[in-house]
C-alpha cells in the first residue's frame, strides 16, 4: 500500500491515522506535519508515523496528501506545495473543491468528508471528484482502498456536501449528547453512573447493527408495544419536539458552513 501525508495533525487526522493503524490495509508509511504545535510528533509516535518539518516536506514525501487543516489556511498551505502533482484530498469543511483545485493546479483534487468513527474503521466518508478528473489510475486505486479501510464510502454530488456534513459529520456529537442525556436520566432513576453509561453505549452499538438491516420505522415498531413503556417514552419525546430540535441543529450547522 502507498504512503500518505497528513497535512495537519488535529482531531480528524488523528482519527484517520488511528483507523489505518487499527488493522491491515492501511498505508505503509504516514508522514505528518503541523503548523508548529508539536502535535505531528505526538501523533507520529502514537501511530508509528514520521513527523516532518512542515507542509512542504509533507507534500514531497508522498503522492497522496490529505489536507486536514483549517479552511482559512488553504492559501498558506498551497504556497508550500512546490507544484505538487499528486492527489490532494481536501477534508476542509465548507470549502468548495473548485477553490482547492485552483490552489493546486497541477494536482488531482478530491473532496472527502469523514466522521470521527473512522478511528474505529466504522466511519462514514462522503466523497466527490471533479467531472473530468484525468487522475492517475494507481493513485486513484490506492486512495479508494485507503478510504474503504476506514468505513463506508458514499460518493455524492458536491452540492449535497454541506447537508451531508451536517448529518454525518456532526451526528457523532449529537449521538454523544443523546447518550449522555439518557445515561444521566438512568442515574437519576437510581442506576450507578458507570452502569448507566455502559448500558447506553452498548445499546447504541447494537442499535446501529440493527439499522444495517431494517429501517427506523420497523425498528421502532419492533421495540414499541401498544400502550407500553417505550410508547410512553416516545410520546414524551414528541411532546418535547425532539424532531424539530434536531432539524434546527442540522440547519444551524449548514448555515455555519456558509459563513
Describe the structure.
The protein is built from twelve helices and eight strands. The protein is an alpha/beta fold. The chain folds into two domains: 4-156, 3-Layer(aba) Sandwich (Rossmann fold); 171-258, ProC C-terminal domain-like (ProC C-terminal domain-like fold, Orthogonal Bundle). It has an eight-stranded mixed sheet with strand order 3-2-1-4-5-6-7-8, sandwiched between helices. Helix 6 (137-149) links the parallel strand 7 and strand 8. Helix 8 packs across helix 9 (193-211). The longest helix is centred in the last third of the chain and has 19 residues, at 193-211. The two termini are 38 Å apart.
Average residue-wise pLDDT: 93
Major sheet strand order? 3-2-1-4-5-6-7-8
Beta-strand percentage? 5-15%
CATH class of the largest domain: Alpha Beta
- CATH homologous superfamily label of the largest domain: NAD(P)-binding Rossmann-like Domain
Helix content estimate: 40-55%
Main β-sheet: number of strands, strand sense, barrel status? 8 strands, mixed
Question: What is the count of DSSP helices, taking H or I runs of 4+ residues?
Answer: 12
Strand and helix order:
EHEHEHEHEHEEHEHHHHHH
Ends apart, CA distance between termini: 38 Å
CATH topology of the largest domain: Rossmann fold
Shape label? elongated
In the CATH hierarchy, what is the architecture of the largest domain at level 2?
3-Layer(aba) Sandwich
Structural class: alpha/beta
Low-confidence parts, pLDDT < 50 over ≥5 residues? none
Oligomerization category of the chains in this entry: single chain
Radius of gyration, in Å, reads 21 Å
Please provide the count of β strands. Answer: 8
| Domain module count | 2
Amino acid at each position: 500500500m502507498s504512503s500518505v501525508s497528513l497535512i495537519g495533525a488535529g482531531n480528524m487526522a488523528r482519527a484517520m491515522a488511528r483507523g489505518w493503524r487499527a488493522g491491515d490495509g492501511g498505508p505503509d508509511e504516514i508522514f505528518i506535519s503541523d503548523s508548529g504545535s508539536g502535535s505531528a510528533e505526538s501523533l507520529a509516535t502514537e501511530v508509528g508515523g514520521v513527523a516532518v518539518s512542515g507542509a512542504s516536506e509533507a507534500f514531497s514525501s508522498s503522492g497522496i496528501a490529505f489536507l486536514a487543516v483549517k479552511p482559512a489556511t488553504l492559501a498558506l498551505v498551497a504556497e508550500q506545495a512546490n507544484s505538487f502533482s499528486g492527489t490532494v484530498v481536501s477534508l476542509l469543511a465548507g470549502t468548495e473543491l473548485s477553490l482547492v483545485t485552483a490552489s493546486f493546479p497541477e494536482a488531482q483534487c478530491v473532496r472527502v468528508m469523514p466522521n470521527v468513527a473512522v478511528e474505529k474503521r466504522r466511519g462514514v466518508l462522503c466523497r466527490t471528484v471533479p467531472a473530468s478528473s484525468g487522475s492517475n489510475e494507481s493513485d486513484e486505486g490506492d486512495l479508494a482502498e485507503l478510504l474503504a479501510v476506514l468505513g463506508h464510502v458514499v460518493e455524492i454530488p458536491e452540492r449535497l456536501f454541506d447537508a451531508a456534513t451536517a448529518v454525518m459529520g456532526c451526528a457523532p456529537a449529537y449521538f454523544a449528547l443523546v447518550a449522555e442525556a439518557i445515561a444521566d436520566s438512568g442515574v437519576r432513576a437510581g442506576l450507578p453512573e458507570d452502569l448507566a453509561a455502559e448500558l447506553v453505549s452498548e445499546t447504541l452499538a447494537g442499535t446501529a447493527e440493527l439499522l444495517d438491516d431494517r429501517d427506523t420505522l420497523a425498528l421502532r415498531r419492533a421495540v414499541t408495544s401498544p400502550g407500553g413503556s417505550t410508547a410512553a417514552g416516545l410520546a414524551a419525546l414528541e411532546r418535547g419536539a425532539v424532531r424539530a430540535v434536531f432539524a434546527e441543529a442540522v440547519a444551524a450547522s449548514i448555515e455555519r458552513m456558509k459563513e
